[in-house]
TrEMBL record:
Region (Disordered) location: 157-189
Subcellular location per the Swiss-Prot or TrEMBL entry: Nucleus
Comp. bias regions, Basic and acidic residues: 157-167
KW Ion transport (keyword) present: no
Biological role: Involved in pre-mRNA splicing.
UniProt KW Transmembrane keyword: no
Domain Pre-mRNA-splicing factor SLU7: start-end pairs: 120-402
One Gene Ontology term of the molecular function aspect: pre-mRNA 3'-splice site binding
Family: Belongs to the SLU7 family.
GO BP, one annotated term: mRNA splicing, via spliceosome
Protein name per its UniProtKB record: Pre-mRNA-splicing factor SLU7
GO CC, alphabetical: spliceosomal complex
């Protein structure tokens, strides 16, 4: 028997004759059975292959959106109470809600919508491109063409203005040409790393260089010459050359370590400098600022809940973990405020500033104070020294002071 595999899903041991089956009197029956099995598998494989051009489920016809088929003059029983169309009910009506529906006014009956049904299989129902009109993409092409044309006209106008400005100042051009003639050949070499002031103003501009590569490809026993277009974007003038690289801020060997593999510098290179002059504070400042600390607390809260037996995981269900953390913070604040109010109600607040009585704020006294023109106190009422119950300046038992 020749080995012919018609269906990869059908194992070979099913199609071939077993070693223990002898080719005796039932040889023809066994061969016929295998042939029938091969034919059935071949037909099943052909049926599974979709013929896209002749498949009725993938026809170009699609729903005629917004089409109307029939309009009556009187309200029909079972129609929409709002507009009067028989194809939908009042709950699914898309017309403007009327003050009095067509059921009661029997006027301005809306036409019925065109309802179509397409018998689609499992794949056809779930095909996202089914019913897509490729002609609508022409609008996108027209929009891009119009934008490209407007950009081309704008650049042409800018170039024309620059030429007019150059022609209006011929004396400056003569001076520039004389200066160029006096320079040596070495001065004509421009270093790519140096950018003049006029180009530094346009540091956000991206230059594109186009390269053509020749390739040969065999197709239909013929060699075709291909020249695909590959663009290489040059970002040389995206960074201002005046900015110092972070690994050159401090050349001390014992300063912050710079990892060239990850382009990272964790510590602060200039730790002793002024805060106003410290424009770069190390990569760790991004880890300990903004929402990074809150995210760390969220992770710690999820770990603690998981250790206590709750089914919470930050990577599996981040929304659930964030919601639980928000609820936890709200409950914690409520409990904290409730405990504080209970303690204040029971013991009071000794640290709170008591309100000064209005009698003291608005009260008057007979104390007289004199000031000079500069606002200094010249003469004030003498402060009465408190008198002690003990005798003053009396030293007993040979003491020299009290």
């Amino acid at each position: 028997m020749e080995r012919i595999i018609n269906n990869q899903a059908c194992p070979w041991k099913v199609l071939r004759r077993n070693w223990f089956c002898k080719a005796t009197s039932y040889k023809n029956v066994w061969i016929c059975a295998l042939r029938l099995l091969r034919i059935a598998s071949r037909n099943a494989l052909k049926a599974s292959i979709r013929k896209w051009k002749s498949d009725p489920n993938y026809t170009k016809a699609w729903y005629d959106r917004g089409a109307k088929v029939h309009q009556v003059e009187k309200y029909r029983k079972g129609a929409c109470e709002n507009c009067g169309a028989i194809t939908h009910d009042a709950k699914a009506c898309m017309d403007r809600p009327r003050k009095k529906g067509a059921k009661w006014t029997n006027m301005y009956i809306a036409p019925d919508e065109k309802i179509e049904t397409f018998e689609l299989d499992y794949v056809g129902k779930r095909d996202r491109w089914n019913g897509y009109d490729t002609a609508t993409f022409a609008r996108v092409i027209e929009r891009y063409k119009a934008r490209h044309e407007a950009r081309r006209k704008y650049l042409k106008e800018q170039q024309r203005k620059k030429l007019e400005e150059k022609n209006s100042n011929p004396s400056e051009q003569v001076k520039v040409s004389e200066e160029k003639e006096d320079d040596d050949e070495d001065s004509l070499k421009v270093d790519e790393a140096k950018v003049d002031e006029s180009k530094q103003m346009d540091f956000a501009k991206v230059e594109k260089h186009v390269h053509f590569r020749r390739r040969w490809q065999r197709q239909e026993s013929k060699f075709m010459h291909l020249e695909p277009l590959t663009e290489v974007i040059d970002f040389r003038n995206l960074r201002i050359r005046e900015d110092t690289a972070k690994y050159l801020l401090n050349l001390n060997v014992n300063s912050a370590h710079y990892d060239p593999k990850t382009w990272s510098m964790r510590e602060v290179p200039l730790s002793d400098s002024d805060l106003n002059e410290k424009f770069y504070g190390g990569d760790n400042q991004y880890i300990t600022s903004g929402q990074a600390m809150e995210f760390k607390q969220l992770n710690v809260h999820a770990w603690e809940l998981y250790e206590k037996g709750q089914d919470v995981h930050m990577q599996v269900a981040p929304s659930q973990a964030e919601l639980l953390y928000k609820n936890y913070k709200v409950i914690k604040e409520k409990l904290k405020s409730k405990t504080k109010d209970t303690i204040m109600e029971k013991y009071g607040n000794a640290a709170a500033e008591e309100e000064i009585p209005k009698e003291l704020l608005l009260g008057q006294s007979e104390k007289q104070v004199e000031y000079d023109r500069a606002g200094r106190v010249i003469k004030d009422q003498e402060i009465a020294l408190p008198r002690s119950k003990y005798e003053e300046d009396v030293y007993i038992n040979n003491h020299t002071c009290v």
